[in-house]
Design a protein that fits this description.
Layout (H helix, E strand, L loop, with lengths): L7 E2 L28 H6 L9 E2 L5 H4 L3 H8 L5 E5 L2 H14 L8 H6 L1 H5 L16 H4 L2 H9 L7 E5 H6 L1 H11 L23 H11 L6 H8 L5 H14 L1 H11 L3 H4 L7
Parallel strand pairs: 1-2, 3-4
Length: about 270
């Protein structure tokens, strides 16, 4: 949405991750997409006009331990926007995404979280997970600690913290809030877009391989096999995993509620978690 505003320039590449130097890939990809050097990063903004403000969106900057420092060194006047999502639903969505792109091979979210210590020691890391730090799920939702890194380096008027629920409820109001924060014309008509949560089912690598072979099959047997395979993830099991995750991360929700002065405990339903 911001990219459509004439006073704002954002590159087509989403998540350049340049300032998250601690989250670089452990092995170079065959076709590297993300900038590593300063010239490569600045090249993303070559098309920006002098009248535009320039920015980019990298979700890993909140998780990164180096990004806040590096951003402040390059531009101490930078304006920081963070959007926080309820931890359990965020981790479920993140886990499903990692499974889909094969960065993760453990299909049970609770078991994936339980593997964190082993993975810190370099074990049980999927072959295609080139940034194994991202598999530290519990670190991804330490929102209070993450925000404090930015608060220590930027004045409060340069930091805007949004709540995902507000954005889902009212795209338009959230968008106008962001435009005012960025000090551009907040009356400019921009079409709002619905940001859908991850809803697609994800399969294990074995099932994925099976479906790949089935999709190449010819004949009437292929369709019922596909339908049967898609039923392998029971809804009840997913619900139980989310409840366990919510219980584990209630202290984090309490901490960020106190930091922001907003009752996220009730908003996110953690007041009924004991």
């Amino acid at each position: 949405m911001l990219r459509q505003h004439p006073q704002i320039y954002m590159p087509d590449l989403k998540e350049p991750r340049f300032f998250a130097s601690d989250l670089r890939a452990r092995a170079p990809a065959k076709r590297r997409r993300h900038p590593v050097t300063a010239p490569e990063y600045l090249a993303l903004f070559e098309a920006a006009s002098p009248e535009q403000i320039a920015g980019e969106a990298s979700a890993t900057y909140l998780f990164s331990h180096t990004a806040a420092d590096r951003i402040a060194q390059v531009n101490p006047r930078a304006r920081i926007i963070a959007i926080l999502r309820e931890p359990a639903s965020f981790l479920r969505s993140l886990h499903l995404t990692y499974l889909r792109i094969h960065f993760e091979d453990e299909t049970d979210l609770r078991k994936a979280i339980a593997l964190e210590q082993e993975r810190r020691e370099g074990r049980r890391i999927p072959a295609r997970s080139r940034v194994p730090q991202l598999l530290q799920y519990s670190q991804q939702v330490r929102y209070a600690e993450q925000l404090c890194r930015y608060q220590a380096r930027f004045p409060s008027e340069q930091i805007l913290v949004l709540i995902y629920d507000d954005f889902r409820r009212d795209n338009e109001t959230t968008l106008r809030t962001v435009l005012r924060f960025l000090r551009v014309d907040d009356r400019f008509p921009l079409p709002t877009l619905d940001a859908n949560v991850t809803t697609s089912s994800v399969r294990s690598s074995r099932v994925d391989a099976l479906l790949s072979s089935v999709s190449l099959a010819r004949g009437g047997w292929a369709r019922p096999v596909k339908a049967a395979v898609k039923l392998l993830t029971p809804r009840k099991a997913r619900h139980g995993a989310l409840t366990a995750v919510r219980r584990r991360f209630k202290p984090e929700v309490v901490a960020v509620s106190e930091l922001l002065g907003r009752d996220l405990v009730s908003l996110w339903g953690y007041d009924v978690i004991v």
